[in-house]
Design brief:
Distance between the termini: 32 Å
Mean pLDDT: 95
Radius of gyration: 13 Å
Shape: globular
Number of strands: 4
Helix content: 55-70%
Structural class: alpha+beta
Strand order of the largest sheet: 1-4-2-3
Order of helices and strands: HEHHEEHE
Largest sheet: 4 strands, antiparallel
Length: 110
C-alpha cells in the first residue's frame, strides 16, 4: 500500500520536473521503488507506474520520444490518454521490469 501523502509529494516533484525538462522513465521507476519498497511484485510496480503516468497526463505532461531534430527535439505521442496508457502498459509489460530512461518514452509538458 502506498502512503498517499508521500505519493502526493512525489507526484508534485515529477510534475515540476516534466514542466521544466524531459522526464525519463528511470525517474518514474525510481519513484515507484521508493514508494513501494523492495520486493514489491511486478504487477504492483506496474500499476503504480501507470497511476503516476495517468496523473502526469492530468497535469499536462505527455509521453513521447526524443528526436535528433534541433527544431523539434520532443515528439509527443499522438494518442489519447487511454491509448497512451495502454501503450505504456504494453511496452513496460514486454520488458518484464520497470523501464529505464529511453526504454519506453519520456514525459514532458509540450
Amino acid at each position: 500500500m502506498v502512503d498517499e501523502e508521500a505519493y502526493r509529494r512525489e507526484l508534485e516533484y515529477l510534475s515540476r520536473y516534466a514542466h521544466d525538462d524531459w522526464l525519463g522513465c528511470s525517474v518514474v521507476s525510481g519513484t515507484v521503488g521508493g514508494l513501494l519498497g523492495r520486493g514489491a511484485p511486478f504487477e504492483e510496480q506496474l500499476a503504480l507506474f501507470l497511476r503516476i503516468a495517468a496523473d502526469l497526463y492530468d497535469v499536462g505532461a505527455r509521453p513521447g520520444d526524443l528526436t535528433e531534430s534541433e527544431r523539434d527535439p520532443f515528439l509527443p505521442w499522438t494518442t489519447d490518454r487511454a491509448d497512451g496508457l495502454a501503450r505504456i502498459a504494453a511496452e513496460v509489460g514486454a520488458h518484464g521490469r520497470l523501464p529505464d530512461s529511453g526504454d519506453v518514452c519520456w514525459f514532458t509538458v509540450p
